[in-house]
Amino acid sequence: MPKFKPHTGTGKRVKVTGKGKLRTEQAGKRHLLEGKSSHVTRRMTGTTAVAKADIPRVKKLLGR
Question: In what order do the strands lie in the sheet with 14-16?
Fold first, then answer.
């Protein structure tokens, strides 16, 4: 029986909090920033919770 290997790319992108919630960086802050207002780019700083529909899939990729 093969061993389960967690997805290393997901592990680098998603952080699990102490209570088990999943946090990830806000999307849309990598490129094309000149066209976005400073209000929008400021709002995209920090982390956000993973969408409720994606939690089972992300947990499976992390091996949890």
Answer: 14-16, 22-25, 47-49
